[in-house]
Design brief:
Helices cover 33% and strands 18% of the residues. The chain is an alpha/beta fold.
Length: 412
């Protein structure tokens, strides 16, 4: 059975380091952090007072007032990012194409922003004062549904949830939807807006967040021996995926190709990854096997590495299990964006596309003290120009043991 090649023709992004893909990329390669003091709520009672907010984001720049009122903050991010991606792809929606275009936008915490706000309203004023659209605003498929309605498309429409692997899985499953012929185009990615009292308090109580409040831009330290946890980020990444034939017929420019995707699960613990790293390594191996790409052909890895003590160590172990002693560049851009949870994989796939296009590897900033347990080339502190980069992978891991890998290749 013929399996079409799947290419990326549009990218949209809302993030702590910029509100579109090009400006955000400029900040990433310059090593600029998007982490600062939380402004979205009063942190007086909180031990953690820092996060990567989507600084300067105004939903009215992208939605009508009515649309904004009906959308959780995470959905507002997704719609804004989708609008950017659609415009870059020059995607035209018509009755002829509607049946062939689907949507797959994932989120880890869904409408926690709306839930938090309405819980406060109910507690102070009573249930009759709550937003009557609260329920459709907080469900995990709200972003996918509202984007599908906005563009009037009728292809497969899902909201994927797999913790911090969510948007990697959304992109991967969108690729497979196109490969099996159920759509020609997929609007896919992830979104997250969990910088709320519940979100920050909950993750802090788990012991996963950095408390370096006095040095926000230096707080997230992936692979560094002094790392003490991740920094929460927010935003969205959306990609337009198309079968190569469909893209070429409408003269769209392929930005990169998504060659393959694989996912595994640890099946061991509610939050902690498997200490053998065997299943995270198997996800990478399986993705490369499906792509018919040898490990020595991979030239860059955008790591999940959020700056947690155990997670970074085990990701380094997985890299060693797949690539042996080969020195392969493995950078963590979360050092600048913070951890966007369910949106992380999508914005990191965008960094991979940009790396492929510009032959430029983003750095891991705040790297000062080497950790023997993370003995890899993490592109420390400064972006690295290379003569050429043709194959990159993006890995994502999530609570519950989710392991997900995308393999991307330079457009040709």
């Amino acid at each position: 059975m013929f399996s079409p090649r799947v290419v990326i023709t549009g990218m949209g992004l809302i993030s702590p380091v910029g509100l579109d893909a090009d400006r955000a990329w400029s900040n990433i390669v310059a090593g600029r952090s998007g982490v600062g003091r939380i402004t979205l709520f009063d942190t007086n009672l909180f031990r953690v007072k820092i996060a990567g907010e989507a600084w300067g984001f105004n939903p009215i720049d992208h939605l009508s007032i009515k649309e904004a009122r009906r959308a959780d903050r995470s959905v507002q991010f997704a719609i804004a990012a989708a609008d950017q991606a659609v415009r870059q792809a020059r995607l035209i929606f018509s009755p002829e194409t509607a049946d062939h275009i689907g949507v797959m936008i994932g989120t880890g915490s869904a409408g926690i922003w709306t839930y938090t706000a309405n819980q406060a309203i109910m507690d102070s004023k009573g249930p009759t004062h709550m937003n009557p659209l609260m329920i459709p605003m907080i469900v995990a498929d709200s972003a996918s549904v509202q984007i599908g309605i906005k563009y009037g498309v009728h292809g497969p429409n899902f909201g994927i949830v797999s913790a911090c692997a969510t948007s990697n899985d959304s992109i991967g499953l969108a690729v497979e939807t196109i490969k099996r012929g159920d759509a020609q185009v997929m609007i896919c990615g992830g979104t997250e807006a969990a910088i709320t009292k519940l979100g920050i308090g909950g993750f802090d109580n788990l012991g996963t967040l950095s408390r370096r409040n006095n040095a926000p831009t230096e707080a997230c330290r992936p692979f560094d021996k002094e790392r003490d946890g991740f920094v929460m980020g927010e935003g969205a990444g959306v990609l337009i995926l198309e079968s190569m034939d469909f893209a070429l017929k409408r003269d769209a420019e392929p930005l990169a190709e998504v060659v393959s995707y694989a996912a595994t699960s640890d099946g061991t613990h509610l939050t902690a990854p498997d200490e053998t790293a065997s299943q995270s390594a198997r996800a990478i191996k399986r993705a490369l096997e499906k792509a018919n790409i040898a490990p020595d052909e991979v030239e860059y890895i955008n790591a999940h590495a959020p700056g947690t003590i155990l997670g970074d160590k085990l990701e380094a172990r997985a890299v060693k299990l797949v690539f042996g002693d080969r020195s392969i560049p493995v950078s963590s851009t979360k050092s600048m964006t913070g951890h966007l949870l369910g949106a992380a994989g999508a914005i990191e796939a965008i960094w991979c596309v940009q790396a492929l296009r510009h032959n430029l590897l983003p750095p891991t900033i705040n790297y000062r003290t080497p950790d023997p347990d993370c003995a890899i080339d993490c592109v420390p502190n400064v972006a690295r120009s290379v003569s050429s980069i043709n194959v990159a992978i993006s890995s994502a891991y999530g609570f519950g043991g989710h392991n997900s890998t995308l393999v991307l290749r330079k457009a040709s």
